[in-house]
Every structure is written in C-alpha cells, then in structure tokens.
Amino acid sequence: MDLWSVSLQTTEPFIELPFACHRPYMFPGKLALLALGVALSRSAGQDCEIQGRPEDAGDASVFLQQDFRLRKDGLAAHAVAIDISESQAVGRVSDPPNKSGALMPNLGVRVVGFGWVVFVPIVAVWVAVFLHERRVSESKRIMIGWVPLQRKACQLFCTWQSLGGFLLAGVSMPLTLDYALSLDQTPTASGLFMGIQLIASVLGTLVGNQLVVETRWNQFFVRRLLLSVYFFTSFATLAFACFLNWTATSSRVSLIWWTGFAWNFMVAFFAGIPNVIGVLLWTKVTNPGNRTIWTVIMQCSRSAGMAIGPVCFSILSRAVIKGGLAVSPRSMMAWVGVFNTWINLTSLAICVFGLPTELPAALPEAPAQEAPETRKSGEARPELLEDHGRETVYWKMFAHFCERPMTLAAIEVSITMMLELFYGWDAYHCGFCLTIMCPVGIVLAVVMKILINSGFASESSVYFSAMLACVFGAAMLFDGGNAGPWTLITGGTVIFSGTAVANGIADGWGSRAAKEGTSFGQAQFQLLKLLAICLGNFAGDTGGRFLVDFGGRNTYAGAQLALCLFGAHTAYGACRPLWAKQHEEWESEDFDAKSSGCKLPSAPEDSPNPSEASNLR
After folding, report:
1. Do 119 and 249 contact (CB within 8 A), yes or no?
2. All domains of the chain, ordered by start, with CATH?
3. Calpha distance 7→565 (Å, rounded)
4. Which residue has the higher pLDDT, 547 or 140?
5. Residue spans with biased composition (Polar residues) (predicted)?
6. Strand partners for 20
C-alpha cells in the first residue's frame, strides 16, 4: 500500500489532521486537500511544498492515505485560533488581557503636520490679550463695564472651570490607551499617564491656596495671576503638541514617553493653581441662597464635559484623518494638544474680558416666600442641626467626595479600555459610551431638583436612593459568561446617573453644614473637597486600568461594588442626623397641634370628595 503525504512546511509546531480515503472515490478529495493546503499557505505567507512520490500520484489504483499537516505561525496561527474558538471568545472577556490573549489594536503610522492655519489664530488671541491688558494697566478698567455682567462672568468662570476640565478628560481619554501602546507602554501605564496629572493638580491647588488669602482679597492681583497661569498653559500645551508631532516617527519611544510624562505633570501643576481661587471668587459674588442651584449647574457642566468630550474627539479625528489612512496615535495626541490649547485660550479670554479689576458686591439674598402647606420644599437644612450633627454631615460629605470621584474615574477609563480590548470596539468610537451615560445623569439631576423644590421628594430620600442605585449598577458590571458590552455600558450609566444626582446634593450639604470659626469651616471644606476629587480621580484612573489589565472584568466589578457599598453606607450615615431632626420636628408639630386643640387636616364627613381636606382651625 502506497502513501502520499502532503504537508505545509514551517518551523513552528503543527496540528496534524489525518485523512484516509479509498482511491476510487477520493481522487477529487485529494485535489480539494491540495487546493486547501495551498490556500492556507498563501494566506499565511508560507511556501507550500508537496512531499511524495510522483509515480504514486500517477497510479490510479493505489490505495491513498493522506497526512495533512497544518503548521502555524504568525497570522495563520491567530486565524486558526479565532476560527476554532470564536464561540468561546465572549466567555473569556472577564480574564485579564495578559492572560486571555486580548488583541491589541492596530495602530496607524501616518503623521498629519500642523499648517499656518493652526498657529495664526492662536497668536492672534495672544496679541489681543496683550493689547487689552496694556489698556487695563493704564485705566484699571476692562472692556465690560456693566457690574451685573461682571458678576455673571465670575460665576460663569467657575462653571467653565468644571466644564473645561472634564471636556479635556473626555477628549483625551479614548486616545490614551493607543498613545501608550504606540510608545511600548502597558494599559496600566496609560492610566498612570492620566492619573499623574491629577497629583500635579493637587500640588497646584495647594500652591494656589497659599498665593491668595480670603480675608485679604486683592482682585487685581487675582485677575493677573489667573491671566498668567492660562497664558502659560496655553503656550505649554501648544509646545507639547508640536513636540509630539515632530517626533511621531522617532524610534526613541522611551525618551518621548517620559518627556511627555514630565511635561504633562508640569502643565497640570500650573493648571491646578486656579482651582481654589475660582471657588473663592464664586463664593464672594454669589449669595448663599443661590449657591445650591449653582452647584447643580456646575455638576451638570461636569457631566456635560464628559458627554461632549468624545463627540469633540470624533469630530477632531475625522477632520484630521479626512478619509485617509489611520493616523499615528502620537500625531493624533498632538492634535488633541491643539484642542487643549484652545480650551486654555477660552479660559484666558473669560479672565481677560470678563473678570473685573475690582470685586463686584454680591446681590442681597431675596426674601424667601413661604410656600403653601401642600407644596413645601423638600430641601434638607443641615445648618439647623446641632454642632455634632453638622460636623457628622460635614465629614460624611468629605468621605463622599473621596469615594465618588474614584468610582467615576474608574468607570470612565476602564469601560473604554474593556470595550476596545475585550469587545473589539474602535478607539475612536468607544468614547461614545460616555456620551450615552452622561446626558442621562444631567436629565435626572435637573428633574430631581425640580421635584425637591416642588416638595414631591426630599433631598435625603433622593440622595440615599441614588447611592443605592449605584450598588445595583455595580452588580451589573459582572460577567457571568454571557454578558456583553451593553451590560457594561448599562451598569456604568446607572452609576453615572446616580452619582450625578447625589453629587449636587452632597456639595450643597457640605457647604451648608460648614460653620465658620470651628474645625469644620467653609474654606476647609472647599479645599478638602478639591483635594479629594483630584486624588480620587488619580486612584480611579490608575487603579481602574490596573484591575482590568491584571484582574479582568470581574475583578474590576468587585472593586466597584465594594466602593459603591461604602458610598451607600456613607450616605446612610449622613442622612441619619437629618432624619432624626425631621422626626423631632414632626413630633413637635403633632404635640403643638394637640396642645392647642387644633385638628389635623381631614376630609369633611359630608364632603362629596373624600380627598378634599379642610383647613386648620
């Protein structure tokens, strides 16, 4: 019995697929196997070698036994592995990338340079700022002379700080992973690249707090300090963008990575100086009665920044690519730097043309009109608690701002990373999950504020319910084997929405629970809150991608569940003093009603409408 063996020659281990067939019936099968072998070898870029004896091939009466060997390497091995295990791919997405064999994205190599159209408008803004400030130095007056508009400019500046910072995060976040991979770094390093900027921002915040003294406020100095900071950051970000584009094809990836690391640290340090200054300026021109609504606006602006950021990145990337080949992540990061420059120029323009040289006085608080009994506001009043209760709420709100930013930052960076590595989403589109999650939180925050002001809901119940909802959202992040990307996005949306509702309430409670002249004062709360937000974002950015990189989806989900449970416990501890105070007020009202002989509202016995209530007599 003669044999004829066909093999595809490579140097790697192989998979043997033996086939035996009788010659009278399987001669077409031999041709099919030959064609299949040639096709596979061509697709793998290998040479096909036929081993055997020609006389056996020509003898039509010889019993045929074929030994078909597929040897794999490179793309051929990867193609076979995907073809065999495609049905098992979804079940393994909970494994870490370094164990599950998650594919790294294909990175472009094209570099898109800067033209004169990039530099001329930026230089024009700098020239306009210089000419305006030269005039201000002589007359001590800005272009806008109307005091109410100056006051609104101070409030809008603080709101823009919230929007602009999160807008920058939303634009750069979808690209940081590819940027790190293009420089031979790990996904964890990409999280560190984002998180280290927050550490620098904390240091800048501490320096800014020392440069300005609240009790000896010098508005002219504050204004010039803000101008200097934003002029420097706009120049530094443009210089870094040019550096990235000019070195986009360089092979010295380690030098480029650490240079960018240090440069971003420096820029973030100076960008953190205005943080406390902006909040103090806002408190000086806003009366306490209007601060709650402004905190809600600022919280919505943060969510809006995260929602708009990926959209801006998509528009920017399409404008840069222009339908051509994929652009190098380093070159695309340079264009993100140009976008960052314009964000800083916008802050510079608000300071130059909006902030006055003399501080405008805050408007007097309007006298509160007593609401009807059927429509009392559901706002909590931490300022009415005893000192012990106020201090409890104060520190619970500080704990809230230690935990929530960490949770949100991990959601933002980790979901985009998992969508790209585990589910094959494109880096230019996975950022749109933030565009899905953030608007829901904005709408819920506005609706809940309306319900609270109308008396249909209380702040404490809304706050505690929102934090409980985050626990259920964290439970949806787990992958039991069949979970897809949409369960990941849905869980993140629930956490995002609950946090958007809770953060506005928590900010207001902390400000109202603070008491001047004590260990829990207003200035201390604002500083601690900013530090907690920055450090929490750093821990979330770095820790979130570390957990996904080395633990997988379920490890990350377990950490998120633990954080959300801690947040719910914190919310319960903050609500307890308010619930106790509310219970005391209800008992006092009942006692006063009984002692004065008053009747509680009830439906008249002969009323045709049992729901109709009579007035107190």
Report:
1. no
2. 6-88 (no CATH), 116-365+380-581 (1.20.1250.20)
3. 59
4. 547
5. 608-617
6. 65
The closest of 567, 510, 517, 513 to 540, measured between CA atoms, is 567
Tell me the β-bridge partners of 17.
68
Q: Tokens for 330, please give them.
A: 């380093």
Please count the residues of the chain: 617
User: Could you identify the residue written with the tokens 């205005």?
Assistant: 274
Q: Do residues 466 and 577 make contact, with C-beta atoms less than 8 angstroms apart?
A: no
Helical H segments across 422-521, by residue range? 427-430, 432-454, 459-475, 485-513
Confidence of residue 570 (pLDDT cuts 50, 70, 90): very high
Cβ atoms < 10 Å from Cβ of 34: 15
CA distance 279 to 267: 20
pLDDT tens sequence across 207-226: 888 888 777 888 889 889 99
Number of other CB atoms surrounding residue 537 within 10 Å: 26
Q: Do residues 100 and 555 lie in contact, with contact meaning Cβ atoms separated by under 8 Å? A: no
For 602, half-sphere exposure in the C-beta direction (CA atoms, 13 angstrom radius) is 7
**Rounded alpha-carbon distances, angstroms, from residue 522 to 193, 325, 515, 519:** 33, 54, 6, 10
Give the list of residues 6+ apart from residue 610 with CB closer than 8 angstroms, or none.
603
| pLDDT tens profile 555-567 | 888 999 999 999 9
Please write the tens of the pLDDT for every residue from 525-537.
878 888 888 788 8
Closest to 574 (Cα-Cα) out of 424, 390, 418, 451: 390
Beta bridge partners of 488: none
Longest dimension (CA), the chain: 120
Which one, of 559, 439, 437, 567, lies nearest residue 502 by Cα? 567
**Is there a contact between 339 and 312 (Cβ–Cβ < 8 Å)?**
yes
Rounded Cα distance between 338 and 238, Å, is: 6
Predicted confidence at residue 553, as pLDDT, reads 85
Q: For residues 616 and 458, give the distance between their C-alpha atoms in angstroms, rounded to a whole number.
A: 24
Q: How far is 350 from 35, CA to CA, in rounded Å?
A: 70
Structure tokens at 140: 């001590």
The full DSSP string for 13-49 is -EEEEEEEE-HHHHHHHHHHHHHHHHHHHHHTT---E
* Token pair of 383 as six digits: 């300022």
Among candidate residues 465, 462, 471, 461, the one with its CA nearest the CA of residue 495 = 471
